[in-house]
C-alpha cells in the first residue's frame, strides 16, 4: 500500500512540477519533455486502472506500466544526452511537428503543446537539470513497479 502510494505521488507530482515549470517559471517544454509528460500520464493511468482489475489484469498492467516507464527512462536519458551535447538539438523537427498535431496538443495546448528547444538554457533545480530529475523519477517508478508485486506477496 505504501509503495503504491509513493509511486502515485511520483507519477502525478512529476506532471505537476512540469506544469509549474512551464507556467510559473516560463520554461517552454521541448518535444522530449512533452513525450515524457505523455509517458508519466500513461504510466499513471495504466497503474491506476489496473488496480481495480483482477489479479491477471493487474500483472498485465504492471508489465505495461514497467514498459512505459522504461520508455520514459530512454526518453529522459536521450534528453540528458542532448543537453550534454549542445551542438545537438531536438529543435523544431519532425517529432515536434507530429506531437503538436496530436489531438491532445490541439485540445489542451497549455498541457501538451511543445514550444521549446531541448538545448534551451534552464536554471538547475537543486543543482541538477530538469532532465536529470525526470530520469530519477522514472527510475524510482521502475523500482517501485518491481518492488510492489513482491511486497504484495509478503502481506
Task: Give the secondary structure arrangement, pairings included.
Blueprint: H1 2-24, H2 31-50, H3 55-84, H4 94-100, H5 103-107, H6 109-112, H7 130-154
Helix pairs in contact: 1-2, 1-7, 2-3, 3-7
- Count of beta strands: 0
Beta content comes to under 5%
Mean pLDDT: 80
The separation of the N and C termini measures 10 Å
Tally of individual helices = 7
> Can you write the helix and strand succession as a string?
HHHHHHH
- Estimate the helix proportion, in percent: over 70%
Short description:
This protein has helices at 2-24, 31-50, 55-84, 94-100, 103-107, 109-112, 130-154. With 155 residues, the chain is an all-alpha fold.
Summarize this structure as a short list of keywords or feature phrases:
single chain, 155 residues, mainly alpha, 7 helices, 0% strand, globular, disordered C terminus
Description:
The chain is mostly helical and 155 residues long.
